[in-house]
Input
Amino acid sequence: MKSIRTAAGPLAMLVAVVAALSNTYAHAQTGVKADSSKKPDSGKFAFTIQGQKVGTCVFKFDAAGASEGNVEVSLGGQDKKYVVKTSSMAGKLTGFSAEENSNNRFIASIVGTVAKVSINGGAAASQTIPMGLQPFGNFCPYLMTYTVAAYDSKKGGDQTFNMGLVEGLPNGQIATLKMKVAAKGAREIKVDTKTATVKTYSLAIDANGATIAISLFADADGHVLGWDVPAQSFTAVRVGYETVIATLEGPAKLN
Output
């Protein structure tokens, strides 16, 4: 079965950064330091590539910081549906998993720098991973809630995080990458009769020498509202916040 990411032409570069989806989707359980992510939350993201709607992700967080995302996308002539799950304990990533069906799934448990990965219910194999791994998914923007919460706002500036792809196992291994995150300020945006505080973060993913820039938007509680990947004309917007994100178009995204 061909992976979603390798089938997505406009996402090719971003796919390369995260090693794309392998033939096994990720059902994830992740634990990360995140006070904000421990607040129950739920919502839906809509995705567009080059202005065309390509799918959605319905997600939820529980009070313990665990999350679940149901992704439905149509790319490269393929319709894909899969579920990603994450969980946390004592502010640390403890594992992740993803499932398209009973024959296309995996689960990874994490203790420190060791991950044990089981594919389709098979025996778990160990892999060394960076300490403090954060979850990342091409179609799971809500997972950046963990990283926003882990970002030291008092220190500010560029902060580097180790990210792990939760949507697949390229070559049967957890794909990891470096991401620089920097807070770029907050804006008060009025929508109808309400005013929303929107924080902007610049993300820079190291893609084997190339850099993929992403603008990330979150509310005052650190809940992700959307992101924009200019190089791929790829956007994710939380349903109900379309007007808020629209006001952040252009240079204002990173100001």
Summary: The first strand starts at residue 41 and ends at 49. The chain has four helices and 15 strands. The chain has one domain: 4-254. Residues 144-150 form the longest helix (7 residues).
